[in-house]
Amino acid sequence: MNKQSDANLVVGAFRRQRYNLADAALVVAAALTLLFGEYYLALAAFVVIMAIFALSLDLAQGYGGVESLGHAAFFGVGAYAAGLYSLHFSPEPISGLLVAAIAAGVVGLLSGFAVLRTQGLTQLMLTLAVATLLYELANVAKGITNGDDGLTGYDVAPLLGMFQFDIYGYTGFVYAFVVLVLVYALLKKLVNSSIGQTAQGIRENQTRMRMLGVSVEKRLWVLYTISAAVAGIAGGLSAQINRIVGLDSLAFTLSANVVVMLALGGTGRLYGALFGAILFVVLSDRAAAIDPTNWLAVLGVVLILIVRYAPDGLAGFVARMVAKRSEK
């Protein structure tokens, strides 16, 4: 057996085990976070929410090849849906989260008709147009969304009727973390299923998949709808934990941020979305604390370095390092 074969075996083993490593990292991160104060719990809860959001985009972009500059559309719809549900129907959080997922999924289902018929720059512009349209609708519909002032004044009932959302953020963090683990596990199964494998084939070569008889639009439509629903879950969690929904949940800045997270962590690898979310949020927080005026410059430098030396993100960089070591 030659060195190349050895390398292939090692890389293959790494790929088979990488989800287990990410699972373990999730548990360790949760345990460590609970040891810190309420500020870090709030930051950790935000990291978890952004990780779910990044996972949703990775599903569409990393596995289906669907480019998006407007993924905040689904985050915002989920956030407003959860907030309005708590305000007008029931403060029960789990059912509110389901409503958020369904509402965002429906928007993804409908917008997918137009978005998935295009590619490249046109697709990017359509996703941006959808998010911009929803942003303006939320701004105009002040009687429903409260416009610039944001949706406030709603309660969130104790989780499972027992765990009150305390001011320290313990319940909120644990709630968000459990949802992250469930979402991650479900997406892991999805990307390893026939739907996920077919989507990756479509990403690599749509023409070839059509020749094999695959309904490209239908498969991408399903993937895009699920991606939207997951983004809605992230938005719903944000609404329930923070008790406010503002127009920033639909803003272009949020869409751009999640794209940066995937650039940092790597696409087409679910755990890359986790790495990217953690790095982006923690780095942004620390840089802003050190220099509130120029913190974006720090983030920009880090992004340039990663794009230069790890173009496939941190997750891809780790995989390449493992492969290089196995060749020695």
UniProtKB/TrEMBL annotation:
Keywords: Cell membrane, Membrane, Transmembrane, Transmembrane helix
A cellular component term, taken from the record's GO annotations: plasma membrane
Membrane topology: Multi-pass membrane protein
Coiled coil segments of this chain: none
The UniProt record lists the keyword Zinc: no
GO MF annotation terms: branched-chain amino acid transmembrane transporter activity
Name of this chain's protein: Branched-chain amino acid ABC transporter permease
Organism: Pusillimonas minor
